[in-house]
Design brief:
Elements: E1 11-18, E2 20-26, E3 29-30, E4 43-47, E5 53-59, E6 67-72, E7 84-86, E8 104-105, E9 107-111, E10 135-138, E11 151-157, H1 163-173, H2 187-193, H3 199-205
Antiparallel strand pairs: 1-4, 1-6, 2-3, 2-5, 5-11, 7-8, 7-11, 9-10
Length: 206
């Protein structure tokens, strides 16, 4: 069996924000940025197979329009209405274990390269390095542009596995994963416990 077919291949995150990406985190680890203060260019971050959470702190003090724009290879993740945003930075807001259920859904301004409303946001130009399926996002105060929240914090999961799915990945790849979603087990541990799983039927319905 080719176990690699069940693992997510490596991907890249391309991201920009008008006017600046102040901080970017992947699974709670802060990333180094080259173009954080130049919103017309996108930073490119290499992601590993196991990465799950993107968190970004962005600002705009221009009083014109603001936005965050991002995509992951093959549109595995794009900025859209599924992202969560807030204007208040709680402790560890960028970490995997942080509860963002009380955060508001982001407001979608418009697609990459085709923003038509609100009028001041027409300044949001296309970023070629980012997918055209990605949308500029901010809080809903952007409707009042140029009077909007100047600072926001946003998050989105690349994947939010259930315990069962992580459990299957552990079995297939024979690796140790330690986090709040799953126990750490190796294939030999399962054999010792006498646990038998019909992986073919599970993966077919996954």
């Amino acid at each position: 069996m080719n176990l690699n077919m069940y693992l997510v291949p490596g991907r890249n995150l391309s991201i920009s924000a008008k006017s600046a990406v102040q901080e970017l985190y992947v699974d709670g680890v802060r990333m180094n940025l080259t173009y954080g203060n130049n919103w017309t260019l996108a930073d490119k971050i290499e992601l590993s197979n196991g990465n799950r959470l993107i968190s970004v702190y962005a600002i705009d003090l221009t009083s014109t329009c603001a936005g965050i724009l991002a995509s992951v290879t093959d549109d595995f993740l794009v900025t859209d209405s599924k992202w969560k945003c807030t204007t208040v930075a709680a402790p560890e807001w960028y970490s995997i274990g942080f509860d963002d259920t009380h955060w508001a859904d982001t407001y979608v301004i418009g697609p990459n390269g085709n923003v038509s409303w609100p009028e001041p946001c027409k300044v949001l130009k296309e970023i070629p390095a980012i997918s055209q399926n990605a949308y500029w996002i901010w809080t809903s105060t952007i409707l009042n542009a140029p009077y909007y929240d100047p600072v926001i914090y946003c998050r989105a999961y690349l994947r939010k596995f259930s315990t069962l799915k992580l459990f299957i990945i552990i079995i297939l790849s024979d690796v140790v994963i330690l986090d709040e979603y799953a126990l750490s087990l190796r294939v030999q541990d399962l054999t010792y416990l006498g646990l038998h799983v019909n992986l073919s039927s599970i993966l077919t319905s996954w």
